[in-house]
Amino acid sequence: MAVAEKVAIQGVDAAVYLVKDADRAKKFWQETMGCAMTMDYGPYGGEFTFGDDTTFGLYKPDDQEWRQGGGMLFRVDDVAAAVEHYKSRGVKFDDDGKIEDTPVCWMAFAQDSEGNNFILHKRKV
Q1: Which of 46, 67, 50, 54 is nearest to 14 (CA)?
Q2: For each of the chain's 125 residues, which pLDDT tens digit applies?
Q3: How many other CB atoms sit within 10 Å of the CB of residue 43?
Q4: Residue spans of beta strands (DSSP E) within 64-112
Q5: Which are the contacts of 28, defined by CB distance < 8 A and separation ≥ 6?
Q6: Which pairs from 18-21 meet CB under 8 Å and 24+ separation?
Q7: How many helices (H) and strands (E) does the chain have?
Q8: In whole angstroms, what is the distance from residue 82 CA to residue 75 CA?
Q9: Counting beta carbons within 10 angstroms of the beta carbon of residue 17, is it exposed (0 to 12), middle (13 to 18) or buried (19 or more)?
């Protein structure tokens, strides 16, 4: 195998947000968002692995301050239905859940229990 093949990035194994309160964050992602925890790190956070083998994690570090995270786009089949569902469960959305319609996707911008930003997302292709 050529060196370039050995070192080429093949995908994303996990994306992690820092949290202020691991128990509150885990509760939000499990109970409010309906995600099943696949690894629990106790007071330090945990992980959620989805059907496509992507993993989203929460981590409360001892050695650094919390910093707001963003950039996670969570795939859903119907952004409008997802916005209404999660709004009814208390999720905070920007612009009251306005859905951005771009040439390539639909997006709704939201915030988790810790103040991290995330997007409900559906590609058009």
Answers
A1: 54
A2: 677 788 888 888 899 999 999 999 999 999 999 999 999 999 999 999 999 999 999 999 989 889 999 999 999 999 999 999 999 999 999 999 999 999 999 999 999 999 999 999 999 98
A3: 9
A4: 72-75, 92-93, 100-101, 105-111
A5: 112, 113, 114
A6: 18/59, 18/60, 18/61, 18/64, 18/66, 18/67, 18/69, 18/114, 18/116, 19/45, 19/58, 19/59, 19/60, 19/66, 19/114, 19/116, 20/60, 20/66, 20/114, 20/115, 21/60, 21/113, 21/114
A7: 3, 9
A8: 10
A9: buried
Specify the pTM: 0.90
Rounded Cα–Cα distance for residues 78 and 70 (Å): 21
Residue type, 27: K
Q: Which helix (H) or strand (E) holds 119?
A: strand 117-123
- H helices of 1-125, where? 3-7, 22-27, 79-88
Q: Supply 2's token pair.
A: 């050529």
